[in-house]
Amino acid sequence: MNGLPTADFFAFESLLSSKEQAKLAELREFLAAEIAPYASDWWNRAEFPAHLLPKLAALELSTPAQRGYSNLFAGLVIAEMTRVDTSIATFFLVHHDLFVESLYGFGSASQKDRLLADASSLRITGAFALTEPGHGSDVAGGMETRARRISSSTGEPDDDGDTWVLNGAKRWIGNGTFCDYMLVWARDEDPHCAPGTVRGFIVDASLPGVSRSRIENKIALRTVQNADIVFEDVRVAEADRFAGISSFEDTNHLLRGSRIMVAWQAVGQQLAAFDVARQYAVERHQFGRPLAKFQLIQQQLVTMLGNAVASLGMMARLAQLQDDGAADMPQVALAKSCTSARMRETVALGRSILGGNGMVTDYRMAKIFADAEAIYTYEGSYEINTLIVGRAVTGVSAIV
Ligand SMILES: Cc1cc2nc3c(=O)[nH]c(=O)nc-3n(C[C@H](O)[C@H](O)[C@H](O)COP(=O)(O)OP(=O)(O)OC[C@H]3O[C@@H](n4cnc5c(N)ncnc54)[C@H](O)[C@@H]3O)c2cc1C
């Protein structure tokens, strides 16, 4: 707002290089012109703006670390996107931080040759299919989707077979209704495998036996297309398996990275809530004076700002640890649980400052308030991330 300080109250952005600051400014212009005016409408109609894909690709902001940017920059990109529209940020995160990063991390040379360039420039889109109807928080141990290796010529189980047969179901899969490819995680049926052997496959979404349906009536991230997906005897070539994955732990590095990005979403969500609530408080008059003149409203705004800046500070330090290759899972889990708890308080205060107008998406805050609930729950719920930290600091697990 004119003449008033930004929500980045401690100027964390000034820690970026001048090139990164310029790129972030370019992103802000894009978001203001191409997303902000339309985001509530897409959300209300639960429609994904597919026409934006070439424009998003032209920003050249996918997987910033692979492009030589700092981890602080990568985080601020997601925070800024979230600040304007949580759904677009989530699409971006699922596609780039889960699908594309998986190709970088686990893909063979030929898988990369075939998919990486198109995926990085959004000519093809991807999803990450891990959660199941019966298994969310406990999916690592409870996964029911099964993979059986066979010989395509005999159809019989074969340890050296050229084909896998997938059976099972996944739920909540972001981009799942329209994606070209999905990374599907499945337990190896072979009784001779080590217990807990999990395989990862790049599944062409048009393969026979794949059926997907949109999850309707969501109260958060309505623009994101989440799907229920069923796999019935889906035949996937051995060439489409991630050869480097044999247990769930192998995905930890990947999930650590995407969890960090979701914590950055919790930052962006708070920046958005503060922006909207402050503007409203300054412009809205009651009792013949602006809301901003009431002490209780000022206190609420300052609590929101303090939460946002504390979250930003925690994430900026985590980004430094990432730059040094030293961010471990308990640190990441603390960041996700803390920022999302602060976020829940921040968006609730923001919603309250808008009074009745905080109930309708026309004023943005209702959407910010509702979208925060998805951030609170996905990429390890608040509770699960809290218990990961609890286990690290006590040496005792309370998860199971
Ligand atoms: C909008 C949205 C998008 C998503 N996108 C994807 C996606 O793209 N790909 C994908 O694979 N998944 C996705 N998910 C799934 C998401 O990761 C799961 O929702 C999340 O892991 C929680 O699982 P659940 O919903 O099955 O809840 P449950 O695991 O059933 O948990 C229900 C409640 O119980 C709590 N709980 C569970 N176990 C414990 C415990 N041991 N101690 C204390 N509390 C516990 C949880 O914290 C939660 O509050 C998405 C989810 C949402 C809502």
Offer a concise description of the structure.
The protein has 400 residues and is an alpha+beta fold.
Itemize the secondary structure elements and their pairings:
Elements: H1 18-35, H2 39-45, H3 53-58, H4 71-84, H5 86-106, H6 109-120, E1 126-129, H7 139-142, E2 146-150, E3 163-174, E4 181-188, E5 198-204, E6 210-214, E7 226-237, H8 252-283, E8 285-286, E9 289-290, H9 295-323, H10 329-353, H11 365-377, H12 382-394
Parallel strand pairs: 1-4, 2-4
Antiparallel strand pairs: 2-3, 3-7, 4-5, 6-7, 8-9
Helix pairs in contact: 1-4, 4-5, 4-8, 5-6, 5-8, 8-9, 8-10, 8-11, 9-10, 10-11, 10-12
Bound molecules: flavin-adenine dinucleotide.
What can you see in these coordinates?
The chain has about 400 residues and is α+β, with helices and mostly antiparallel strands. The chain folds into 3 domains: about 10-120, Butyryl-Coa Dehydrogenase, subunit A, domain 1; about 125-250, Butyryl-CoA Dehydrogenase, subunit A, domain 2, CATH 2.40.110.10; about 250-395, Butyryl-CoA Dehydrogenase, subunit A, domain 3, CATH 1.20.140.10. The protein has helices spanning about 20-35, 40-45, 55-60, 70-85, 85-105, 110-120, 140, 250-285, 295-325, 330-355, 365-375, 380-395; strands at about 125-130, 145-150, 165-175, 180-190, 200-205, 210-215, 225-235, 285, 290. A hairpin with a 2-residue loop joins strand 8 (about 285) and strand 9. It is elongated. The mean pLDDT is about 95. It binds flavin-adenine dinucleotide. Flavin-adenine dinucleotide binds near residues 131, 226 and 374.
